[in-house]
Amino acid sequence: MKITRKGEYAMRALVDLAQNYRKGLRQIQDIVREEEIPGKFLEQILIILKNAGLLQSKRGIGGGYSLNRPPDKISIGEVIRLIDGPLAPLGCVSSGHASCSKEITCGIRSVMVDVENATAEILDRVTLADICNRTKGMAERRAEYQMYYI
Amino acid sequence: MKITRKGEYAMRALVDLAQNYRKGLRQIQDIVREEEIPGKFLEQILIILKNAGLLQSKRGIGGGYSLNRPPDKISIGEVIRLIDGPLAPLGCVSSGHASCSKEITCGIRSVMVDVENATAEILDRVTLADICNRTKGMAERRAEYQMYYI
DNA sequence: GAAATTTCCGATTTGACTTATAGGAATACT
DNA sequence: AGTATTCCTATAAGTCAAATCGGAAATTTC
Ligand code: FES
Ligand code: FES
Fold this sequence. Notes:
The structure is a homodimer of 150-residue chains. Chain A has 150 residues and is mainly alpha-helical.
C-alpha cells in the first residue's frame, strides 16, 4: 500500500474539518490557507469524500463543507481505502489476479496478507478524533518540555 | 510503502534460490523459466542483490547465482528496503521532509509511524526459509484436501 | 431577476517513475 | 579460439500521480 499525495491531502483536510466540527461550514479556501494544499486538487478530493458520504456540502454564498459524521465515527482506514485503494502492499493480495504461477500456495502472498491485516488493524481502529487527540497531546507535551528552558 | 514489480521479482527470485540452496549455481534463465520474469529485467535485479551481498555469482560457462547466506538469515524486510525503499506508507515518516506544516506534532504522521513499525515487525522477522515453509505447508495441506475427493 | 459566491464536473497537461529492452563489455570455462 | 554467462550503461516505452483549466450548476444577496 502506498499513500499518495491525494490520500495525504484527504486525511489532512478531514482532520482539519474534524478540528472544526460543529463550528459551521468550512470553505475550500479556508482549508487551503490552513493546510497549504493546491486548491483545485483539493476540490476534487472533497467531492470524492462527499460522494462517499463522509462530507456534507452546500453551494453558493455561505456554503462549504462539514463532516457528515462525528469525528470518532470516521476511521483513517476508510479514508485511505476510498482514495488510494486496498491496503495490501502487493497487487496479488487484493485483486484476484495471479502474479506468480502458484498463487494459491504462494508464501510471499501469505506474508503480505499478514501485513495487510496488521495495517488494517491499526488504520481501521484509529479515527479522526484519535488523530486530533494525538496532535493535541504531542503539542502539549512539547509545550511542557519547552517550559523547562525558561 | 508500495512493493513494485521489481520488488516482487526480487522476492520471487530469492525464494527460488532459497529452494535451491546448496544445489549449486542457478542461472538467470533457470529462474526466468521457473518464475516467468522478464530476463533482462531480472538481470538488473540480481546484480543489485549481488552488490548488496545477498547473492554470490560466477560468470562464464557453468556460472550463475546462489544465496550468499542461509535462507533463514535473509529477511523479506531487508529485500524490500533494498529494492523499494523505506517501509513507511507516507513520505514524511521516513524522509525528514515536512509534509504538513506541523510535522513534529502531526497526528497523522504518528499513526503512520505505528503502521511502519507493525509492518517492519512482520517483514523483518519473516525469512526466505519461512516463506519456503509456508509455501510447502500450504501445498501439502492443499494436497491433503484434494485427497478427500478421490 | 441580476450579480456574486461557492461547490460541482470533465478534460487535459505535465512530469516523474516504473517497467522493460537493447547492445555490448568483462569474465570464465572447454 | 570460441562459447556461455554475468555485468554494465543507456534508453525506449508505458503508466500513473499531481496539478491545472474552463466552465456548469446551485445558492444567497441585493
Ligand atoms: S501470488 Fe503474488 S507473489 Fe506469489
Ligand atoms: S507530517 Fe506528514 S502528514 Fe503531517
